[in-house]
Amino acid sequence: MDVKRQAGTPLASIGEFGLIGRLARAWQGAASQGERGGLSPVIPSQGLRLGIGDDAAVIDVPGGKPLLVTTDMLVEGVHFLWSPIRRRLLGRKALAVNISDIAAMGGIPAWAFLSIGVPASAKVEEVEGLYAGMGEMAAQFGVELAGGDTVRSDKWVINVTLLGLAVKAPIGRSGGRPGDLILVTGTVGDAAAGLHLLLMETKMSQAEKMDAQMREAPIGEADRQALLLRHLDPIPRVAEARALVDYGGVTAMMDVSDGVSSEVHHLCRNSGCGARIDLANLPISPAVRRLARREGREVFAWALSGGEDYELIFTAPEERVPGLIDHVRRETGTGVTVIGRLTDGTAGVMAVYPDEMGGDAVPLAAKGYNHFR
Amino acid sequence: MDVKRQAGTPLASIGEFGLIGRLARAWQGAASQGERGGLSPVIPSQGLRLGIGDDAAVIDVPGGKPLLVTTDMLVEGVHFLWSPIRRRLLGRKALAVNISDIAAMGGIPAWAFLSIGVPASAKVEEVEGLYAGMGEMAAQFGVELAGGDTVRSDKWVINVTLLGLAVKAPIGRSGGRPGDLILVTGTVGDAAAGLHLLLMETKMSQAEKMDAQMREAPIGEADRQALLLRHLDPIPRVAEARALVDYGGVTAMMDVSDGVSSEVHHLCRNSGCGARIDLANLPISPAVRRLARREGREVFAWALSGGEDYELIFTAPEERVPGLIDHVRRETGTGVTVIGRLTDGTAGVMAVYPDEMGGDAVPLAAKGYNHFR
């Protein structure tokens, strides 16, 4: 083995966000020493308005509307298990999570670029199934396939780069102000509960499955289907984002990909605020409540740290909130719930337990998913 | 094993271009059956001017300059061998090949989005080295790091999506007309000859290396360094593309990534033309000529089918050619060579041997690199 590979800092020791910072500095360090090509006149150097660290980058194309760009890499065995049966759902989801990032900036998705790494042993029909799933999701949200790359790879790798346009001004994560209310669309925790069910069912042996059929199911079939779908087939909140932008007043927004706790911490760090989250107000579906009760889990756990709900979490001044909630419900049928309030930056991020659980305020841990831990 | 995976069409049986066509149809088929979300008013559906099948997509952002977008996925073990020592060069090249695609459309590169799959055992310094290499190349051509994704993966995977802006009208592959001359910048075959040297040196055992030092080297050290660098550290022809666009008259253009044969076939298919390539006129460097002689290879082989030269190949009406060649040389110092002429579409793609080799015209095979064969 190469001795040089043994030396150095293990990735796990700095975590994903530490790594992103070091990589941006490595790039910049090299860039500042590099020789400029003197080819810039057609490109204004101020084109990049918002770079790393938000749901999507914001680029000002000369003369045009602000362009939003997001990219995501999904690797077999890390982000998904390849299943020839679920390839259509996998395709739908791979595009959906990127559409969600564009929506979270207050944008409309438009052009997709797909790079796919495919094992040499795969069949054409498998890759077609993946593309068909993406095509379905694309059609639902007006996205065009604009380019891509198809290469050989040991494991399946799916990289989506999605371009969109801001409806009005793009909405980042840094505009929240103390006193703003914190709101979330739909319900949270469903996708994590669905994943929990899926893993439970996958791990069961055939004998256990027969045994389980004899016993009472953990939840009814309608609940089970609903939760599995939230995990396997998330629908991005594009119409809701558009309604929010049209009504106006949203100060900061992102999508719930890593769980409410993690996203609230991001919003607070970027906006220089603290927050109080009222756990009693978290919009948790009856199906999640029933499953949590059966499994003996705290009902908030999946909502706070489960992730992959792809709901929108956003902040707005209190006086805009009643109108915003009404407008989104009228335009899209989707409910919006106030879950807390931004506070002064020195107050930290606190979770307030419901009165019947003692009503304590405790620091809320940022328990988002971290790829390298 | 899952029986369903065994059924279906093997990837190798349809090749890369066949696959791309089937995938685009799979996407479109699903899209045409899908339900439209009715969210389109901010996006003109004509935004995508040029999609799959050129060096980069061309997108008309409302009100703005034409946007060029290209994406490339590189997988360890397929496109490169990971070397902690060469990580900087690998970073440079990963960005350079995308910059070359933007240049080949007559554009200036601007904003890069990087998705990197990193083995859990990798050290932070290795990933930093890769980014530092990209940052160097970026600085040389005015590219900003605008976003990305860093994920865990068994093998290293590098996906670059690069956005750029067209200097004037984007130049595709379909504008060539019978009678247009075919030209290429710089020299071709150097990168493939460099790869040949690298593979030869890598395969040699220690004993063979000592033995080789006793014998005469296949070529001098200056030749060796020059050829290795053309393979390991290609420099995209951005300034040359800009000079060509500024002068005007180029009817079709692409970069030489898969070898002159393959690129001429692409130009002809897209422009509905045939071509005659004068092998005697191929710009082949003295180093490649010397190495070919030593190795007993036909001198044209690397230039025609080797690939990775990242020169520009383009067509222009005969009357514009002398001025174009002068202008590029004056602006950039780079030589441009006429290598043939587009002909009627029925004439096929022919290669004409030099007089001293008999002067025969033979059909030119499209021997580009194909990822799935």
From TrEMBL, chains A, B:
Reactions the enzyme catalyzes: thiamine phosphate + ATP = thiamine diphosphate + ADP
Pathway listed: Cofactor biosynthesis; thiamine diphosphate biosynthesis; thiamine diphosphate from thiamine phosphate: step 1/1
Domain PurM-like C-terminal: residue ranges: 177-348
Protein name per the record: Thiamine-monophosphate kinase
One Gene Ontology biological process: thiamine diphosphate biosynthetic process
Keyword NADP belongs to the record: no
Note: Reaction mechanism of ThiL seems to utilize a direct, inline transfer of the gamma-phosphate of ATP to TMP rather than a phosphorylated enzyme intermediate.
Residues that, per the record, bind Mg(2+) 3: 55, 101, 255
Binding site for Mg(2+) 2: 72, 101
Family stated for the protein in its record: Belongs to the thiamine-monophosphate kinase family.
